[in-house]
Amino acid sequence: MVINQEHLEMKIEELQNQTTAYVSEIRQLIEGLSIASNANVISYFTASLNISHDTEQESLCLGNYHIRNIGNEPLTNINFCIKLPENSPFTFSGQYVYEHFSQNLKNSASWERMNERANKEEFWLKPLNIMSIEPNETIIFPNFQLKWANSTSYAGTITGVTYCDQLKEGVPAINPINLSGSGFIQEEEHE
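and the corresponding structure tokens:
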């Protein structure tokens, strides 16, 4: 069985033209695809506890608040709120400045508190030198402290909510910090 060379060349050319048409159609379909913008963030706490059972000493929670961009677009104007329970025994402290602080102090800190100093339940913070978080990037508010006395029973949940231009309604932290315990009362020994 002898195949005519001319017939074979025509068949190859026909297949090449067909392949070129398929590749062109695939390119047009790919160009027509639009990957939807997806703004998404995950925020969470990491913490270490030092619980004292001595009523004369305070207990301590050292923590970090992480904000990670898990979407496919940059997140802009990031800020977040750490909220303590109303009338709780917990006190919050961290490395942040206020808007009216001098530039020297602002340069040494990387976070600014946006709400009033007198508010002991809500701490609204924003990064000073970070305008956006790129996809797969994480920023951290590091080394905050929660302190409380053990002289009485205590209970409360510390929550966090992250906001940005793309997620104005806010996204809560996935793991609030829950603290509870009973105050230890030593009984005097009677002989």
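(Above: one complete record from the training split.) The helical segments are 5-32, 103-108.
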